User: What shape does this take?
Amino acid sequence: MKNVAIGVDIGGTNTAIGVVDQEGNVMVKDNIATPGHGDIDRYITDLASAINELIKSVKLLNPDVEFLGIGIGAPNANYYKGTIEHTANLSFRGVVPFIDLLRKHFPDLEALALTNDANAAAIGEMIYGGAKGMKNFVMFTLGTGVGSGVVVNGDLVYGHDGFAGECGHTTLVPGGRLCGCGNRGHLEAYCSAPGMKRTAFELMVEYNATDSLLAGKSFNELDSKMIYEAAVQGDKIALEVFEKTGAWLGQGLANTVHHLSPEAIFLFGGPTASGDYIFNPIKKHMEEHLLSVFKNKIKILPSKLKPGDAAIVGASALVWKEMEK
Amino acid sequence: MKNVAIGVDIGGTNTAIGVVDQEGNVMVKDNIATPGHGDIDRYITDLASAINELIKSVKLLNPDVEFLGIGIGAPNANYYKGTIEHTANLSFRGVVPFIDLLRKHFPDLEALALTNDANAAAIGEMIYGGAKGMKNFVMFTLGTGVGSGVVVNGDLVYGHDGFAGECGHTTLVPGGRLCGCGNRGHLEAYCSAPGMKRTAFELMVEYNATDSLLAGKSFNELDSKMIYEAAVQGDKIALEVFEKTGAWLGQGLANTVHHLSPEAIFLFGGPTASGDYIFNPIKKHMEEHLLSVFKNKIKILPSKLKPGDAAIVGASALVWKEMEK
Assistant: This one.
């Protein structure tokens, strides 16, 4: 008998579904479009069909497999209520009782649970990744936005309302850059992939840097991978983007350390693929901001979740976490 | 049979000791000087004598009383290790194994525990004060410095190293005012009582405010109580001090909310005696910084611990918290 979990990652355009074993390997996967199903009931029905197809295909090859549950990662997901609330990116409006709706299709599964994508990534890191055995750590996911998941005493912190871990929306620069949320100066506006692009253009403007390797790209073309490649070639603008991003993120991570005294902070997502270019300035600037009781103690580590499958795998980890209870 | 706890608050000049009942009433109290005992062993011996005198005096009147333990609040205290580490204010140097030393004098007491003063205040609020029944809240103590204690799922967050809850040292203004810790722009440098005084002088400098009610006080004379009294009389500088302090603290509390999603944040200490003058701008500015999922949900409340006895009472609360385990 082999236990497995189903992970579902709901994005703005695509919903990815996978069957994941206890070691974090994706056995099979599939996906459906997130929008275009008409209404939420129809979306849930289509999602349930896709899940049932995957279950059938796995059982055909491994009749002994037991499916324990479904873990779902989605923006604005509320773990306590099992709802997805007021999300701008998704085609579901208002407060969607997601778990209640899905439960009707899977009355016999032990664990159905929902949380936001960054929380799911944190649980994934704890169950399958680099945070195995750690009781106090924080996960930052750097992508289009910046998400975070906080683990204290071995449990994810949901807080009173279920929405804890929005460290991407802490203020770094009072009155600074406009953030996607409408506020100003947030960590996400500086340290996300688009934030790095904004910094690159800010620096090209500042220095009138026509000789930068980045100067031939439009605002819509430039991405964090190009900045990394330019940095490798010694481009001064690109190198300063990493230095400044590290300074901002270092300041933000120090704030998190002063709240929580974590053993480690894990970083996940596109910008972290730049390795030392991003990790070194982050560590340097974080240390500068720390009280002496924290200095040289906090590990800043790359996530061990595989980039391609991380969202599915993270969501599936929710199931194992629920089974511990 | 009535159970009681002993609370000890270790400050730079004075160590206050009290016997506290389960409702948070101080039955008797005493104090000894913190410095001047020669060495740490002698200080502990003198502290133990003072505690034993209090125990004797209580037992004389109430032979049925049972002493459950001693809770200690001190700067740079490490709950996990029972140590006081590298504190600048106290006459003990290096890492002091405080609980081990005290245990020799009280081998039979069930609970001996140590934490920093702000953590003790948070536990006090939870056991005796306004946070009774709350599972997720944060306590900020505004005084000479700014301390904080974080409660998640009904337990104080100590973090990996035992030093969580140093929110006073989160950065509000990059490169801003010098903080007592040597870093710049920290919340403590703006929102402590001395921080408010610095703001008052900053504003008098800015406006050359010779007509302010505060303009006759020296830098060493002015305190947060005088600023409050001037605000009540309509002094523009004093009113703007509250507005600016509220703006800074609101920004800082929003960062805390985005980390932890608490039900409430409690404020304790001198500046909070100014009531609406300080609470209104804090609430207004915090709300401006919050993501919509948090708006109009987080209570900002004055502590219900009595100012005079709060430190002793908070420290004693550690004992009841330990007994829950």
About this structure: Chain B has two domains: 2-129+308-323, 137-302. Residues 2-129+308-323 of chain B form a domain with the Nucleotidyltransferase; domain 5 fold (CATH 3.30.420.40). Chain B has nine helices and 13 strands. Chain B has a mean pLDDT of 94.
